[in-house]
Amino acid sequence: MSTQSSNILRGLKALSGPFPTWDTQSLPENPTELFLDWMKLAIEMKVKEPHAMTISTVDSDGFPDARVLIIKEAKDDSFYFATGLESQKGQHIQHNPKVALTFYWPELGRQIRIRGVAEDMGLEAGAIDLRRRSPIARAVAMTEHQSQPLASEEELERSIAIQEQKIDQDPDIVTPNWRLFAVHAQQIEFWQADTDRKHTRYQYLLHDGQWTHQQLWP
Ligand SMILES: Cc1cc2nc3c(=O)[nH]c(=O)nc-3n(C[C@H](O)[C@H](O)[C@H](O)COP(=O)(O)O)c2cc1C
Protein backbone atom coordinates (compact mmCIF):
# COMPACT_ATOMS: atom_id res chain seq x y z
CA MET A 1 0.00 0.00 0.00
CA SER A 2 2.88 2.40 0.77
CA THR A 3 3.69 3.67 -2.77
CA GLN A 4 0.03 4.15 -3.75
CA SER A 5 -1.32 5.06 -0.34
CA SER A 6 -2.22 8.55 -1.44
CA ASN A 7 -4.35 7.27 -4.34
CA ILE A 8 -6.00 4.64 -2.17
CA LEU A 9 -6.70 6.96 0.76
CA ARG A 10 -7.87 9.87 -1.41
CA GLY A 11 -10.20 7.46 -3.23
CA LEU A 12 -12.06 6.54 -0.04
CA LYS A 13 -15.39 8.19 0.65
CA ALA A 14 -15.92 10.23 3.82
CA LEU A 15 -19.06 11.79 5.23
CA SER A 16 -21.28 10.52 2.44
CA GLY A 17 -24.38 10.28 4.63
CA PRO A 18 -27.32 10.24 4.84
CA PHE A 19 -27.20 11.88 8.25
CA PRO A 20 -29.90 12.72 10.79
CA THR A 21 -31.26 16.26 10.92
CA TRP A 22 -30.26 18.43 13.87
CA ASP A 23 -32.72 21.08 14.96
CA THR A 24 -30.47 23.89 16.20
CA GLN A 25 -33.42 26.28 16.75
CA SER A 26 -34.08 24.83 20.18
CA LEU A 27 -30.67 23.94 21.58
CA PRO A 28 -30.73 23.12 25.31
CA GLU A 29 -29.00 25.55 27.69
CA ASN A 30 -27.03 22.65 29.12
CA PRO A 31 -24.60 20.63 26.96
CA THR A 32 -24.90 17.42 29.04
CA GLU A 33 -28.58 17.32 28.01
CA LEU A 34 -27.57 17.58 24.35
CA PHE A 35 -24.81 14.97 24.85
CA LEU A 36 -27.34 12.52 26.32
CA ASP A 37 -29.81 13.22 23.44
CA TRP A 38 -27.09 12.48 20.90
CA MET A 39 -25.93 9.37 22.80
CA LYS A 40 -29.53 8.11 22.96
CA LEU A 41 -29.89 8.47 19.19
CA ALA A 42 -26.51 6.77 18.61
CA ILE A 43 -27.71 3.81 20.72
CA GLU A 44 -31.10 3.71 18.91
CA MET A 45 -29.35 3.83 15.52
CA LYS A 46 -27.19 0.91 16.64
CA VAL A 47 -23.86 2.73 16.30
CA LYS A 48 -21.23 0.18 17.28
CA GLU A 49 -19.74 0.95 20.71
CA PRO A 50 -21.21 4.47 20.92
CA HIS A 51 -19.77 4.71 24.44
CA ALA A 52 -16.17 4.45 23.18
CA MET A 53 -14.32 7.78 23.26
CA THR A 54 -10.75 8.95 22.69
CA ILE A 55 -9.14 10.53 25.72
CA SER A 56 -6.16 12.81 25.09
CA THR A 57 -3.64 13.59 27.80
CA VAL A 58 -0.22 15.23 27.89
CA ASP A 59 2.93 13.84 29.49
CA SER A 60 5.32 15.75 31.74
CA ASP A 61 7.11 17.14 28.63
CA GLY A 62 3.82 18.48 27.26
CA PHE A 63 3.81 15.74 24.59
CA PRO A 64 0.25 14.64 23.77
CA ASP A 65 -1.01 11.06 23.76
CA ALA A 66 -4.44 9.59 23.04
CA ARG A 67 -6.26 6.28 23.35
CA VAL A 68 -9.80 4.89 23.38
CA LEU A 69 -11.74 4.29 26.60
CA ILE A 70 -15.29 3.52 27.61
CA ILE A 71 -17.41 6.29 29.16
CA LYS A 72 -19.17 5.06 32.31
CA GLU A 73 -21.52 7.93 33.09
CA ALA A 74 -22.39 11.49 32.07
CA LYS A 75 -24.10 13.75 34.58
CA ASP A 76 -23.96 17.33 35.84
CA ASP A 77 -21.40 18.37 33.18
CA SER A 78 -19.01 15.59 34.23
CA PHE A 79 -17.98 12.58 32.15
CA TYR A 80 -16.69 9.45 33.90
CA PHE A 81 -14.17 6.78 32.96
CA ALA A 82 -12.13 4.19 34.85
CA THR A 83 -8.50 3.15 34.56
CA GLY A 84 -5.38 2.16 36.51
CA LEU A 85 -3.30 4.83 38.24
CA GLU A 86 -0.14 3.02 37.13
CA SER A 87 -1.04 3.29 33.42
CA GLN A 88 0.48 5.92 31.16
CA LYS A 89 -2.72 7.93 31.11
CA GLY A 90 -2.99 7.54 34.89
CA GLN A 91 0.50 9.01 35.25
CA HIS A 92 -0.21 11.82 32.79
CA ILE A 93 -3.39 12.83 34.60
CA GLN A 94 -1.69 12.88 37.99
CA HIS A 95 0.87 15.28 36.50
CA ASN A 96 -1.60 17.32 34.43
CA PRO A 97 -5.35 16.72 34.85
CA LYS A 98 -6.33 18.74 31.75
CA VAL A 99 -7.76 16.28 29.20
CA ALA A 100 -9.85 16.11 26.04
CA LEU A 101 -12.52 13.52 25.20
CA THR A 102 -13.60 12.89 21.60
CA PHE A 103 -16.55 10.86 20.33
CA TYR A 104 -17.05 10.07 16.63
CA TRP A 105 -20.10 8.24 15.33
CA PRO A 106 -19.55 7.70 11.56
CA GLU A 107 -23.06 6.36 10.96
CA LEU A 108 -24.48 9.67 12.19
CA GLY A 109 -21.70 11.96 10.94
CA ARG A 110 -21.42 13.30 14.47
CA GLN A 111 -18.44 14.28 16.58
CA ILE A 112 -18.40 15.58 20.16
CA ARG A 113 -15.34 17.24 21.64
CA ILE A 114 -15.06 17.80 25.39
CA ARG A 115 -12.25 19.65 27.18
CA GLY A 116 -12.03 19.62 30.93
CA VAL A 117 -10.20 18.72 34.10
CA ALA A 118 -10.04 15.13 35.35
CA GLU A 119 -10.66 14.42 39.03
CA ASP A 120 -9.83 11.14 40.76
CA MET A 121 -13.06 10.19 42.54
CA GLY A 122 -11.17 8.28 45.24
CA LEU A 123 -10.77 4.75 46.57
CA GLU A 124 -14.42 3.85 47.13
CA ALA A 125 -15.61 5.02 43.68
CA GLY A 126 -12.77 3.03 42.08
CA ALA A 127 -13.69 -0.05 44.14
CA ILE A 128 -17.37 0.17 43.12
CA ASP A 129 -16.43 0.42 39.44
CA LEU A 130 -13.97 -2.48 39.71
CA ARG A 131 -16.55 -4.77 41.37
CA ARG A 132 -18.97 -4.06 38.49
CA ARG A 133 -16.48 -5.32 35.88
CA SER A 134 -16.56 -8.90 34.59
CA PRO A 135 -14.43 -11.34 36.65
CA ILE A 136 -11.70 -11.54 33.98
CA ALA A 137 -11.63 -7.76 33.39
CA ARG A 138 -11.37 -7.36 37.15
CA ALA A 139 -8.52 -9.84 37.43
CA VAL A 140 -6.60 -8.09 34.62
CA ALA A 141 -7.11 -4.68 36.27
CA MET A 142 -5.89 -6.12 39.56
CA THR A 143 -2.53 -7.10 38.06
CA GLU A 144 -1.71 -3.35 38.43
CA HIS A 145 0.78 -3.34 35.53
CA GLN A 146 -1.18 -1.59 32.76
CA SER A 147 1.13 0.03 30.16
CA GLN A 148 4.30 -1.49 31.64
CA PRO A 149 6.63 -3.73 29.57
CA LEU A 150 5.51 -7.38 29.58
CA ALA A 151 8.31 -10.00 29.56
CA SER A 152 6.19 -12.93 28.33
CA GLU A 153 2.62 -14.22 27.85
CA GLU A 154 3.32 -16.69 30.69
CA GLU A 155 4.01 -13.81 33.06
CA LEU A 156 0.62 -12.30 32.16
CA GLU A 157 -1.27 -15.61 32.53
CA ARG A 158 0.42 -16.33 35.86
CA SER A 159 -0.40 -12.88 37.20
CA ILE A 160 -4.07 -13.09 36.08
CA ALA A 161 -4.42 -16.59 37.65
CA ILE A 162 -3.12 -15.24 40.98
CA GLN A 163 -5.66 -12.41 40.90
CA GLU A 164 -8.51 -14.80 39.95
CA GLN A 165 -7.62 -16.93 42.94
CA LYS A 166 -7.67 -13.87 45.22
CA ILE A 167 -11.11 -12.85 43.87
CA ASP A 168 -12.38 -16.42 44.45
CA GLN A 169 -11.23 -16.27 48.07
CA ASP A 170 -12.54 -12.73 48.66
CA PRO A 171 -15.22 -11.63 46.14
CA ASP A 172 -15.05 -8.03 47.43
CA ILE A 173 -11.29 -7.65 47.00
CA VAL A 174 -10.13 -4.60 45.00
CA THR A 175 -6.92 -2.81 44.14
CA PRO A 176 -6.42 0.80 45.25
CA ASN A 177 -4.86 1.45 41.83
CA TRP A 178 -8.15 1.15 39.92
CA ARG A 179 -9.82 4.56 39.88
CA LEU A 180 -12.91 6.25 38.54
CA PHE A 181 -12.19 9.70 37.11
CA ALA A 182 -14.68 12.49 36.44
CA VAL A 183 -13.84 14.93 33.67
CA HIS A 184 -15.44 18.23 34.65
CA ALA A 185 -16.19 19.85 31.29
CA GLN A 186 -15.34 23.47 30.53
CA GLN A 187 -15.94 23.36 26.79
CA ILE A 188 -18.06 21.01 24.64
CA GLU A 189 -18.46 21.13 20.87
CA PHE A 190 -21.15 19.31 18.88
CA TRP A 191 -20.35 18.75 15.20
CA GLN A 192 -22.82 17.50 12.62
CA ALA A 193 -21.44 16.51 9.23
CA ASP A 194 -23.04 17.79 6.04
CA THR A 195 -22.50 15.86 2.81
CA ASP A 196 -21.74 19.22 1.07
CA ARG A 197 -19.18 19.99 3.79
CA LYS A 198 -21.25 22.82 5.29
CA HIS A 199 -20.90 21.17 8.66
CA THR A 200 -22.82 22.51 11.64
CA ARG A 201 -20.82 23.24 14.78
CA TYR A 202 -22.00 24.55 18.13
CA GLN A 203 -19.56 25.19 20.95
CA TYR A 204 -20.64 25.44 24.58
CA LEU A 205 -18.38 27.35 26.99
CA LEU A 206 -18.54 27.46 30.78
CA HIS A 207 -17.95 30.87 32.42
CA ASP A 208 -18.57 31.47 36.14
CA GLY A 209 -20.77 28.39 36.36
CA GLN A 210 -22.93 29.43 33.37
CA TRP A 211 -22.98 27.77 29.97
CA THR A 212 -23.22 29.85 26.81
CA HIS A 213 -23.12 28.57 23.26
CA GLN A 214 -22.11 29.89 19.87
CA GLN A 215 -22.02 28.60 16.33
CA LEU A 216 -18.61 28.07 14.70
CA TRP A 217 -17.54 28.20 11.07
CA PRO A 218 -17.32 24.71 9.60
C1 LIG B 1 -13.17 0.13 22.72
C2 LIG B 1 -12.07 0.22 23.75
C3 LIG B 1 -12.40 0.36 25.09
C4 LIG B 1 -11.40 0.49 26.07
N1 LIG B 1 -11.77 0.70 27.37
C5 LIG B 1 -10.81 0.91 28.30
C6 LIG B 1 -11.17 1.28 29.64
O1 LIG B 1 -12.37 1.46 29.98
N2 LIG B 1 -10.17 1.46 30.55
C7 LIG B 1 -8.84 1.31 30.21
O2 LIG B 1 -7.98 1.50 31.08
N3 LIG B 1 -8.47 0.99 28.95
C8 LIG B 1 -9.41 0.78 27.98
N4 LIG B 1 -9.05 0.48 26.68
C9 LIG B 1 -7.59 0.32 26.37
C10 LIG B 1 -6.95 1.70 26.15
O3 LIG B 1 -7.22 2.17 24.84
C11 LIG B 1 -5.41 1.68 26.35
O4 LIG B 1 -4.82 0.73 25.49
C12 LIG B 1 -5.00 1.35 27.77
O5 LIG B 1 -5.86 1.95 28.72
C13 LIG B 1 -3.57 1.79 28.04
O6 LIG B 1 -3.43 3.16 27.75
P1 LIG B 1 -2.23 4.06 28.33
O7 LIG B 1 -0.98 3.24 28.14
O8 LIG B 1 -2.22 5.30 27.51
O9 LIG B 1 -2.53 4.31 29.77
C14 LIG B 1 -10.02 0.38 25.68
C15 LIG B 1 -9.70 0.23 24.32
C16 LIG B 1 -10.70 0.17 23.37
C17 LIG B 1 -10.30 0.06 21.90
From TrEMBL:
Start and end residues of each Pyridoxamine 5'-phosphate oxidase N-terminal domain: 44-121
Cofactor(s) the protein needs: FMN
Ranges where the Pyridoxine 5'-phosphate oxidase dimerisation C-terminal domain occurs: 178-218
Protein name in UniProt: Pyridoxal 5'-phosphate synthase
Family, similarity comment: Belongs to the pyridoxamine 5'-phosphate oxidase family.
One Pfam family hit: PNPOx_N
Source organism (scientific name): Paenibacillus nicotianae
Keywords, alphabetical: Flavoprotein, FMN, Oxidoreductase
Domain of life: Bacteria
NCBIfam families xrefs: PRK05679.1
